[in-house]
Write a structure and sequence with these properties.
The structure holds two protein chains of two kinds. Chain A is α/β, with parallel strands linked by helices. Chain A has helices at residues 2-23, 25-36, 42-51, 66-80, 94-101, 116-122, 133-136, 167-174, 190-202, 204-207, 224-242, 255-267, 281-289, 302-307, 352-367, 369-378, 397-407, 423-437, 443-461, and strands spanning 56-60, 84-88, 110-113, 145-147, 150-155, 159-166, 211-213, 293-299, 319-322, 334-339, 343-346, 411-413. Chain A folds into two domains: 2-158 and 340-389, D-Maltodextrin-Binding Protein, domain 2, CATH 3.40.190.10; 161-338 and 408-461, 3-Layer(aba) Sandwich (D-Maltodextrin-Binding Protein, domain 2), CATH 3.40.190. Chain A is 48% helix and 13% strand. In chain A, strands 6, 7, 8, 9, 10 and 12 form a six-stranded mixed β-sheet that branches. Chain A has a four-stranded antiparallel β-sheet with strand order 3-11-5-4. A two-stranded parallel sheet of chain A has the order 1-2. In chain A, helix 18 packs antiparallel against helix 19. Chain A is globular. Chain B is mainly alpha-helical. In chain B, 72% of the residues lie in helices and 1% in strands. In chain B, strand 1 (37-38) and strand 2 (46-47) form a beta hairpin. In chain B, helix 5 packs across helix 7 (140-168).
Amino acid sequence: MKKKLISALLCAAMVSAMLVGCGSSSGESAGTESGAASEEAAGTESAAAASGEGRVYYLNFKPEVDAQWQEIAAAYTEETGVPVQVVTAASGTYEEVLKAEIAKDDAVTLFQINGPVGYQSWKDYCLDLTDTDIANALSDPTLSIASEGKVYGIPYTVETYGIIYNDAIMQKYFAMDGAKATSVDEINNFAKLKEVVEDMQAKKDDLGIEGVFASTSLLPGEDWRWQTHLANIPIYYEYKDASVSDEAEITFKYSDNMKNIFDLYINNSTCAPGLLGSKAVTDSMAEFALGQAAMVQNGNWAWGQIAEVDGNTVQESDIKFMPIYTGVAGEENQGLCTGTENFWCVNSQVSEADQKATIDFINWMVTSDKGKDYMVNTLGNAAPFSTFGDDEKPADPLAQEMYRFMESGKESVSWNFTTFPSQSFKDDFGAALLEYANGNMTWDEVKDLVVARWAEEKAATAQ
Amino acid sequence: MEKTLKKYFVIFTVPTLIAFAFAFIAPFLMGVYLSFCKFTTIKNAQWIGFSNYAAVFGSSQNFLNSLLFTAMFTVVAIITINVFAFGIALLLTRKMKGTNLFRTIFFMPNLIGGIVLGYTWQQMINAVLYKYETTIVSSAKYGFWGLVLLMNWQMIGYMMIIYIAGLQNVPTELIEAAKIDGATAKQTLFKVTIPMVMPSITICMFLTLSNSFKLFDQNLALTNGAPMNKTQMLALNIYKTFYDKPGFEGVGQAKAVIFFIIVALIAVIQLRATRSREVQQ
């Protein structure tokens, strides 16, 4: 009897532990997340909610600006009396936290989606924002997430990426005998880029660098610069040829162009291709900041990462952008990859008072002087709204470069990776790139996998 | 006795029962319900019947591969962990000097969280593989043995403690009697000691089985399924289905229910099998 009881108990204990593991994982993570994040306004919030004034609860996507958002929340509450609560999801856990927080009674009122794919999964919760002040203030209305003529997602920042280079090292190279170019302006296509990079790699000891490109981080979870950002370029040209903005199936016809640049990255790097599976983004940013590499592919958000590396040897004035050339015909006129994957959405399933308070809050962010100041100077956002004047732009060197390219008349590459079918697709793409770098897969296999997985995931998520 | 039990039942058991109902039973029933639904959050679930279960075994789901990998890992982990733990326990019950120190040291890895361990071992293994210009994610076999190594390092100390407790309870007169009867050390071990510590073996087998089968943190931190999801275990597969594929939340939930059934079945069978070998003192 006793034995049976014990075995029954053991079974029950193990079974229940399992349930916690699977059944309530979302609840659990939410608990720890919001525990880790700050909930300063929580007290005042419930009081105001009771009096029917509405409240704002923003689930912030970017951990690096959490403190800034707390400051903004406090300032807004002080000015208007509306309680603003800002919770930040830890890096890479936004979807998890959102799934939990949006199902609560005191639900998130303001959240963000990453584009059309995000809209597909959250459309039941996206409020129609057409004719709000913030939607009308967009300098380019096509940037917003719209469905059937109605606006559901508002982009609040524009970002750009390309190849960041250290001008000091480049100048040192250009001054050498037999340099393949005399200025960066001459590098305006892939052939030239390859010539220069390979020559620089051969002379790396004279240049005092360990490799031209900082390591191509392929550690699982750290591969988004390749499976998302770099992969955007062939997809951009494919969409452009077909004059579409999304496709259920791709042929990946510019895959060889992606191979061109990817090979250049991994073969002219600070480390052997076989070691790339151990490298994280911070590793490559550190290599760049310490002057061990001359180039790194990343976006304007990387300025903070470069600046805060200990022993940083790169001068602010030496940090410049160059477009990512892949050998497509006519790429001399190609600019940086500019777009956004940060869209604000208002939760349509909270009370009307809360919805109104939230819309007022985002309007305030882009129309009031104080809000605009926070947007530009505190958050460093290049806000795509007509309410921002020419002097209201972030001042960091990479943002400056972004404006320089925008004004140069070069054709920006739009962000089409917001139409990539799912995170799972991107992860598999990244895994295939890693296998390729390790020599376990040929490029044709990578290409086939990408085409197949795209079709599968698109079909599955379109339902 | 019966009466007092009944009397105090309310005070001692009901609070736990309520907590158990809220924290375990309710989420479990909700989870089962959700596995039949299409949903983004648990509040907007729509009943769709069995189609989630049908989708689980699709080729892009990688569920069967994960199951196979998990099963292989579990078999290897159970054998290695228990053999090493039992061996160390035998050594440390021999009244050597400093056994307490050794016991403490062997137990310590068990106190470190799985994520931390995963990243630490990833660094260490990569540091070794660096010499060969490769990394742990370059081949599924590195990931497999890396996981085995990590789990051994973490679990051996814990199992060792349980075995030590079992070994110390083996009556010395039985050992002495065996010696007088002329049993060799090997015979004493297999005919006397092991049958006497069978309850400990039951518990250790059970713990290693369930822990290996449900392994998540270490898997996530060490390889995160790389390369090409070849080292993805079931728990990680479910997690990724749920969070990384929009529209597949229900499928993830269905996988979780299947996972639950598999683990429950194996545990019951295994418990019965080892129980039947126990001897009464």
